[in-house]
Amino acid sequence: MNKAVFVLIALLSQNTFATEHEQFTQQGKVAIKEFATTLKASLVSAMKSGGPIEAISVCNQVAPAISAELSEKYGFEISRTSLKVRNQNNAADQWEKEILFQFESLNQQGEDVKTLFVSEAITKSGSHEMRMMKAIPTGKVCLTCHGSNIDPVVQAKLSELYPNDQATGFKLGDIRGAFTVRKTID
Ligand code: HEC
Questions:
Q1: Domain assignment of residue 127, yes or no
Q2: Smallest CA separation from ligand 1 atom 35, residue
Q3: What is the pTM of this model?
Q4: How many Cβ atoms are within 10 Å of 134's Cβ, its own excluded?
Q5: What is the side-by-side strand order in the sheet with 127-137?
Q6: Which of 48, 58, 97, 183 is the one with CA 20 to 30 A from 119?
Q7: pLDDT at position 2
Q8: 8 A C-beta contact, residue 167 and residue 92
Q9: Helices (H) and strands (E) in the chain, counts
Q10: Is 163 helix (H, G, I), strand (E, B) or coil?
Q11: Distance CA 123, CA 157 (A)
């Protein structure tokens, strides 16, 4: 191929990818907001109507369902992760761990957890991958199931469902975890 043509094609595809990444970032932010709002609303209403035991089933069943529904709707994978997970299915992979460590250090330097956000386009041999993470702060309501003084009845239910639970001992304002979004294009 003529060198000029090759360079042009390379530039064009890079440009397309930049546009795709921009779209991904915008859509990802919308999806994350939808995830956060829907889940918080179900959680708060379950806490009010049936208390924490009923609310555990929201986190246990509704959270994965919302995750699946939004992934389908937006055409990418969206879920939640953390350095200390309750459900092993939510465990962070290497890239996610690195970002979570960066978030932790920024939080320690005084950055507001709500602002911690990353969107990256990663090019590997033959494939483009776009990934995004947004930190989730620990609010007051979260302490009922993720704090240090968990009611024994709640704790018993959590231990029954999650024998390897690592997601306790969080304090107000800690990073509880992050929303994570991923899309691969060939
Ligand atoms: C009523 C108990 C309860 C409350 C309150 C609660 N959670 Fe959870 N949380 C859970 C359960 C149960 C899971 C495991 C869900 C699953 O199986 O995917 C979980 C999982 C998570 C996860 C996914 C990572 C992991 O540890 O597996 C994040 C992030 C999270 N919770 C954040 C929060 C935040 C932020 C709040 C407050 C707004 C909160 N939770 C309030 C019970 C609770």
A1: yes
A2: 138
A3: 0.92
A4: 23
A5: 77-81, 175-185, 127-137, 117-124
A6: 58
A7: 67
A8: no
A9: 5, 4
A10: coil
A11: 43
Residue 94, domain CATH: 3.30.450
CA atoms within a 13 Å half-sphere pointing along the CA-CB vector of 48 = 6
Residue 180 near ligand 1, beta carbon < 6 Å: no
The secondary structure of residue 61, as a DSSP letter, is: I
Whole domain around residue 166: which residue ranges? Answer: 3-31+74-185
User: Alpha-carbon distance 43 to 38, whole Å?
Assistant: 9
CA 84 to ligand 1 center in whole angstroms = 11
Please tell me the distance between residue 80's alpha carbon and the centre of ligand 1 in angstroms. 9
Q: Is 46 in the pocket of ligand 1 (CB under 6 A)?
A: no
> Do the Cβ atoms of 134 and 179 come closer than 8 Å?
yes
Query: Which of 37, 47, 59 has the most ligand 1 atoms within 8 A of CB, as the residue to mutate?
Result: 59
Render pLDDT for 132-163 as a digit per residue (tens, 0 to 9). Answer: 999 999 999 999 999 999 999 999 999 999 99
* pLDDT single digits (tens) 71-129: 999 999 999 999 999 999 999 999 999 999 999 999 999 999 999 999 999 887 778 89
Q: How many structural domains does the chain have?
A: 1
Give the DSSP letter string of 42-60.
HHHHHHHHHHHHHHHHIII
Ligand 1 contact via 144 beta carbon (within 6 Å): yes
Q: Is the CB–ligand 1 distance for residue 28 below 6 Å?
A: no
